[in-house]
Amino acid sequence: MEVRSEGLQVRCEKVASGTPPVIARTRVQVWFIRVCSSILLWTALVQLVTVGELWQPHFFTNITNKITQITPFPIAAQVHAQPPPPPLLQARNYTSNGYLKVSCNGGLNQMRAAICDMVAVARLLNLTLVVPELDKTSFWADPSNFEDIFNVKHFIDSLRDEVRIVRRVPKRFNRKSGYKVLEMPPVSWSDEKYYLEQALKFTPQIETLGNKLVRILQERGPFVALHLRYEMDMLAFSGCTHACTKDEAEELKTLRYAYPWWREKEIVSEERRLQGLCPLTPEETALVLQALGFDNETQIYIAAGEIYGSERRLAALRAAFPHIVRKEMLLDPVELQQFQNHSSQMAALDFMVSIASNTFIPTYDGNMAKVVEGHRRYLGFKKTILLDRKRLVELLDLHQNGTLPWNEFAFAVQAAHEKRMGQPIRRRVIADKPKEEDYFYANPQECLCERTNCDDLLGPNNSSSIQ
What we know:
Blueprint: E1 2-5, E2 8-11, H1 21-55, H2 59-70, H3 76-79, E3 99-100, H4 108-124, E4 128-130, H5 146-149, H6 152-158, E5 164-166, H7 204-219, E6 223-227, H8 232-238, H9 246-258, H10 269-274, H11 282-291, E7 299-302, H12 310-320, E8 324-325, H13 327-330, H14 333-337, H15 343-356, E9 359-362, H16 367-378, H17 389-400, H18 406-416, H19 445-448, H20 454-458
Parallel strand pairs: 3-4, 4-5, 6-7, 6-9, 7-8
Antiparallel strand pairs: 1-2
Helix pairs in contact: 7-15, 8-9, 11-12, 17-18
């Protein structure tokens, strides 16, 4: 006889010969009843736990905590226990007008910004937000899902007082059920304020490794996070080929034509460079850092992916600053193995280090640079050097052709960046021309004014005009 329940199997074997039949049958019946009763009790307990978690997630947690408090001997798992999560916020009560599905594209920080925007849209329109989908078809071909990078439970719980978030649209609302589905790209530069909370928390794996990176760097002393955006995708997209070989320039042009959503195809590199629209090369960056006063003892963390041209293009920078490190140099390869071929997860580690650095210097004002800048302002206006690339290109060319001596070059570089160190500044807002105004994520002035006197910090004439 066999009894199967919930993946468990109980087999009743034949009784041994010589045992009286009636007694043997009685024992088998009793044993059978006990086993089946145990199975039913365990099944009921599992169902009870499941229902309890659905209705009140903290009920069984509280019971466990009480049991732990009266346990006379601590168990090993309790030694490294995480602090208890904050109490859940009161859920906002509203009638949902439908479900908002979001598909984000681009790199990590572009997708972060898009998710923040869509949270605001869901709140504004009283929609239920579905956990966003991440881009898997861009240049990086990163297969990561939302839950591979961000803590989904924290995302849902931390925003429950503003917007309802679900992991997926219920099956009853799919296309086959006859419900109308509207698809449309969001309108850029809309004039509604976006919702600013750090609801996007990285997964425990990313946070643990990111914090380890920060700890290793801080134990060695102060450090600069250099967002050296001299990567293949950026150079191909921007059309910037200054100091590249002829073959490299052709390779970058071929890549630009391979991606149809990169709209500009024919680009004159030197024109863009003179306009300040190109990332600084590693060689240019070395000169600028020296001119700003950083010496060869400075610890520099390169917060970027693979540099185009690899070590050949980093030679001048390493010669000037021998204490250059990357995450691959500080962590065991085994620790990074889980993030290999997942560029967004690697970028999340760089993001955490950049936020924690003593000084953050981006060589191009892409999405990561802007988001990190705004986050550092929010944390107390931590030092962020915003390079004036248009002015720097002029000075670099004058110095390298022998017209401008080093002392004059260094003085001019420092003078140009005296007020570009992440100090409090007013965000430039242009009525009816939001695309031309200063990026909100880089300087969330409205949020900073809630907790300090902006007039004292900003001053009457201290407004931004960042290239």
